[in-house]
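W.,

You were right to be curious about this one. When I first looked at the sequence I had no strong expectations either way, so I just let the prediction run and decided to look at it fresh. Below is the sequence, 423 residues in total, followed by the output.
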Amino acid sequence: MTDTDHLGRPIVAITGTGIATSLGLGKEANWKALTAGVSGIHEITRFSIAGMRTTVAGTIDYLDMEDSSAPAMAEKLAGLVTEEALAESGIGTPGDFPGPLFMALPPVEIEWPHRRALAAAAGVNEGLSYTDLIRAGENGDFAAWYDRFLFGSVGETLAARFGTKGSPIATSTACASGGTAIQLGVEAIRRGECQAALVVGTDASVNPESLIRFSLLSALSTRNDPTAARPFSKDRDGFVMAEGAGALVLESLAHARARGATILGILEGCGEAADGFHRTRSSPDGKPIVACMQRALADSGLTPDQIGYVNAHGTGTPENDKMEYVGIAAVFGDRVASLPVSSNKSMIGHTLTAAGAIEAIFTLYTIRNGVLPPTINYETPDPTLPVDCVPNVARPAKVSHAISNSFGFGGQNVCIVVGAAPE
């Protein structure tokens, strides 16, 4: 393999990865559980679920956190996976990463406990107004809150800790955010702006307010047991919220080879398409999803026949799975019934902003280890979705090229093509 692709651009290699999900912390724990078909979905214990329609999630309960707010947990997770990715890559020195940081982050908002604390500081029992917030801020010691709830605070903290170069880029494109962050890193290397980039997707948004919001959208499963996530199954009834983080060290292939790095895989192509059809729904004709995958394939220089596996967005909502099948059928034609298409979310839940990064890493592991992760809880096939979802049990398979789909609310769609490391 040369150091440039079919368009003469630098080939982008993956030299380090780190991951944390409800299945555990680290690559080995996650891959072992994922291929064993273990569910990380369980009853929520971090806060009261009394009166909730949905009471399960893929929460991460192994962190020792005094502050369990979403941004604090997201930052903690991001730090842990970045440490693992940098250790595997061996790039740079501690606190001195030789490239920029691209982050996928959820919207950062103050949560109910913080609002109650502000109300108490303002001496208000109910009906907290904007004026009350200002008065509370003036009278209390909330400087740390101000820093925390700035949108870019997580990225800024991580950039300072790991010594990335330039201002961190924090993006939030709903459930496509992780894929978007990867694409930004790939494009920066291809344009010659840097020789290496750190990409991190992180999300810890399982809190009462978020749970209620998604429930009001009728987007969540109400099965309320570890089998709640049922992608592509006829009895699927919604997605399961989850927490997690994934980090990737990206380098130009030439740079990685020059320093003797181990090449884990290649990021061969990226494609995106936004339709803006609806705030939550996909366009019923599936055109944006089709365009997203077609653009990724064109970017990679591959044909559909060269793809051996699709890591589906596969949320388990009735409409998303249907539209993803329509898109895959349009792109892969007659192969749609035999092409393996499985969903990690059946085990880890939907990690929202982090999903694109986490699932791209699992796609890389699929290629490196020659094992297709299963779609668990697949008990009742949907005759309108005749896909090979690798039902319930992992399957050995040699795969050289695979794609990972991420489709977000608001019509944000990203597809990543991952290839095997050069021999």
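Here's what jumped out at me. The longest strand covers residues 12-21. And, maybe more interesting for your project: The CA atoms of residues 27 and 194 lie 27 Å apart.

Coffee later to discuss?

I.
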